[in-house]
Amino acid sequence: MKNFTSSVMILFIAMSSVLYGQEKSVYQSLSMNAELIKNSNALVRYEKMEVDMKSIRDMEMKQVRVITVLNEEGLDDLKPYVHYNNGIKVKDIQMLIFDRTGEEVNKFKKKDFKDVSAVSGGTLYSDSRVLYLDYTPVSYPFTVEFSYEIATDNSAILPSWSFLSGYNLSTEESHYIVHYDPNETSLRIKESRLEGYDIHKEESEGYLAYSGKNLEAIKKEDLAPAFSKIVPRVEVVPKRFFYEGYEGDVSDWNEFGKWMYTRILSGRQELPPATIATVTALVKGVDDDYEKAKIIYKYVQENTRYISVQVGIGGMQPIAAIDVDKVKYGDCKGLSNYTMALLRAVGVESYYTHVEAGQSIDSFHAEFPSLAQGNHIILAIPYKDEMLWVDCTSQSLPFNFVGDFTDNRRVCVIKPDGGEIMTTPSYLDENNYKLTKANYVIQDDGSISGEIDMTSNGIAYDNAYYVEDSDDEYVNRYYKEYYWKYMNGLQIDSYSFKNDKDKIEFKEHLKVEVRNYANKSGEQLLIMPNAFDRYRSIPDRYRSRKLPFQVERGFKEEDEFIITLPEKYTMPTLPGAVSIANKFGEYHLTMEMNEDGKLIMKRSLLIRHGEYEKDDYDDFRDFCKKVAQYDVSKIVLKQTDKT
Description:
Layout: H1 34-37, E1 42-55, E2 58-69, E3 81-84, E4 88-98, E5 104-108, E6 114-117, E7 129-132, E8 142-152, E9 161-162, E10 169-180, E11 187-192, E12 199-204, E13 207-215, E14 233-238, E15 240-243, E16 246-249, H2 253-264, H3 273-282, H4 289-303, E17 305-306, H5 321-327, E18 329-330, H6 332-345, E19 351-355, E20 376-383, E21 386-390, E22 410-415, E23 418-423, E24 433-442, E25 448-457, H7 459-462, H8 472-483, E26 490-500, E27 505-514, E28 519-521, E29 524-527, E30 549-551, E31 555-564, E32 569-570, E33 578-582, E34 585-593, E35 599-607, E36 610-612, H9 617-631, E37 635-639
Parallel strand pairs: 1-10, 17-18, 24-31
Antiparallel strand pairs: 1-2, 2-8, 3-7, 4-5, 4-8, 6-7, 9-14, 10-13, 11-14, 12-13, 15-16, 19-20, 19-22, 20-21, 22-23, 24-25, 25-27, 26-27, 28-29, 29-37, 30-36, 31-35, 32-37, 33-34, 34-35
Helix pairs in contact: 4-6, 5-6
């Protein structure tokens, strides 16, 4: 029932103009839907995003979000902030706080929000800013209404809409509305996974609307796919748009690439003559483009620094190469464009490339071009019959190695004749290889001492090489608290590293001691031969698994340990060989005595990448559990001489 005069029943918010007629129950947390709060840290009571594209050069967006936070973990779902820059004006922003009965207990207006740079340490990006509010609740549950209104003359990127915006977060009511002038543009729409939810669509000329109700929280499960791959989602793109002074009309990735190349990148590769002379001298006498590109990449790594500005927040257009050259820093766009300019100066072609970066693999939609896709820029360098890939933001990655931040995903490569969807290198299974060799001695008192050599390739390299530049304190903590956390009394006597960036191979050599490693009981010594490479990643157990699962990359490990036993002890029996092989991977373990009386343990483990149905989860977990159990298998040594 509508009652605009009673603050007891209805809260009227003129700014957002979206909660007319809503009952006060949306703000209180005493009678929430039991099914919606199950598995939830927070509950979105009401949300609405309304986009009004009056023309392709005049767009406003209004959002309101009422969310009840049930516990401390739900605080992350508040997200009371908005990014802006010279092209985006924040017309209004506010946040209201309600107690569990629905009574308003606090109100924050625009002046109460902190207005800070979204980028630290770089004046080139001084217009990239964020308004945000820090709020510490007195008690749980409580309810927040966060709303803002922004205006922009850039219409290229419309917000996408997920009716569930995170794990363990449910939604009571959600609306997404787009108004547009059909005489100026039309919309392209991509709907993903809407089936099975109470989501309805309404569409007419110049109008598009979606509404969803009572969407239960998705509980986060171990090894589940990225949330973006399972959530109901709508993406909307105007076919014709305006962006930073340029009109665009993009119907496919090829057209997108042409627009980017001619409008956004054109004229931004100019370099000072002195810099051209410097890099030309660096490659003097070098004819091979691979070697030239490697030299230029090293020059960029040694002479610039990276400032994080996500694509979209900092705009689509890179800072001009001549400006990056002057200040010696840039974001991914600026550094990639700068490297492209340097390569061009020495006669090497390269292509500016949009990618959706992150440790979770996320690819571009091949049939749905959009400026909203992609949060990072890398370079693609054609060489003979292959493409080389470099991330110009890293001061340490080897040339032509992108690591787990941009591997194995579809990207858009911007060429002079248009955009092309390509796939970055994949590091899968055996490509992510680690070899561990150890030679250690077991003392009578149960302590061990010895040397360890580890060689890493692929993502195993990516996970290890950075320790080379760390101080002693970090290195010791790295091995004691992360790598061999299970090892009590570990002492690192010495260490050395060799980082071969040409082979993309990292080697670690350590001398270690471990006190009280073996358990002594009377005349027996109980030892675990596998001291230095135990598998510990046993997935969580679920009584009723709900989601599919995936192993994104896979890996292979091989080990050979030479173990010198105490002189006064003997091993009566050797454990038998272990061999497991299934669709998830392989595990092999053998132990034997060599002619010198030393115990030789050989181990190999392969975990295969793949996407699996939920019904396979228990079998995969059982495989992992067996590997972990065999890795800590024990043998008994018996004392032969008490003197």
